[in-house]
Amino acid sequence: MFSIRTKLILFMSMLIIIVGTLSCLFFLIHSKWQQEEVLQRFGTSLVTLLAQDNEVKYAIRSSQPAFLDTPIKRVRELDREDEISYLRISNNHAVMVEEKSPQINTITEEIPTIGKNQQCPETSLGNSITTTSGEVFCDFSVPVLEIQTFSEEEFAAQMLGEGNVIRKKAQPILGFVQIGLSHHKLEERIHKIIWQSIIPLGIFIVIGGIFTTFFLTRYLVSPLRRMASITLDIARGDFNRTVEIHSNDEIGQLSTNFNQMAQSLRGLCDEKEKIMAQLRENVQRLSLANTELEEAQERLVRTEKLAAIGKLASGIGHELRNPLGVMRNALFILKKRIKDTDALTDNQNLTQLTYILEKETERSVKIVNDLLAFSRTTKPTVSLTNIRSLLESSLSRLEIPEKIKKVMQFEDPLPLLYVDATQIEQVFINLVQNACDAMPTGGQLTIHAEKENDFLNVTFTDTGCGIPDTIKDKIFEPLFTTKPNGLGLGLAVSSSIIQRHGGCIDLKSKDGEGSTFTVKLPVAIT
Q: What are phi and psi of 332, to 5 degrees?
């Protein structure tokens, strides 16, 4: 896409070339025609002057070439630029005088003699003659006529304008005058005109065109380009731009109208921004109110849900706790009596069955304890506790599969904490058990403890299946579980216990790459 400035420069360049070429060509043709006309008149004047000179007529009549020196000298004096290339004066029988300029290379025999043995030749003025050497001459040839005398009747008729009635008498031809002018001088004058007039004219036209282009670019195109640039800025939202053009013509009026339009747009834009700001503020308020309403509704539903679950859990826990206790005591007695009998084979089967009953009973007891822990909001009974000993005790109460590698990393020394050892131990057992469940085919469990500012961070990292991003926000909710046999209370109870101790549990996990649970507990101030 060409800009208006480029188009103007191209147009003015083409216009300058066309106008300059046509002007120089016209001036050259006119000057050449004018110089040829001057050459024609000059040659005609010279040959006529000799042909009408009485001395020339007398010399031809008397066949005395010596009498021609004076007329020829007068003609030579008129030829100040040596344009006469050859001069020939002849009578009806022979050439009397023949002269050639030393500047030409043509021999006189190549130049035809005009009027020889002709009684009534026509006058030949300005005929072009080209010789074998390539030289071009403008030939002027006229006959030399006898002096005409008038009778009284002819003179009277001529004076009264009736000369056409009287038949002209044939005038006798005494001889011929032939003069050739060289085209070399004509070409020199034309070249001189080209260098002195035509080339300066072309330069003047080019300079004038350049100044015209500069004027149009400065006072017409440049303001338009500035206005176009400012228009783009305004389109981008910068309404503070104005066009600074001070003139009394249409461009100045256009810039004034443009600035007024920009000012109006700026006012409209400011008004629109105020309205948009009010709308955004209202939308933000509505969004905040809606968020608060949703959170309140969620809290209300959760509270009702937790209250119902807590009430149900408390009732079920109390109802199941006593029978499970009786079952545990009965299994203990049964195992003791099986050991006292001698039937080895039957004892092995009974031992396996009692092991299964004991394991399931312990699992049922854990579920009941989780239900009771979830239903209670007992304030922790805190005491100074060594977290390292608490972690070792928690691990000793669990059976970690041999295919899971256990790595312990503790900062030495670890600060003491004011915590409820029983509740915190329950949290650690839940997190370790979850890590082992996430690695059914084996892996590595890393437990790391270190102090960070006023908190002690205990990190449990596994290399299991990880937790998808879609359920990260739900894993601490009660009754939410991804395990086939899980109840969904372990993490909910753990999070509740840690929050009652003034801490929190953070989760970092990536699906397929394992999970990291970080328990943050405040350090005891001693």
A: -65, -45
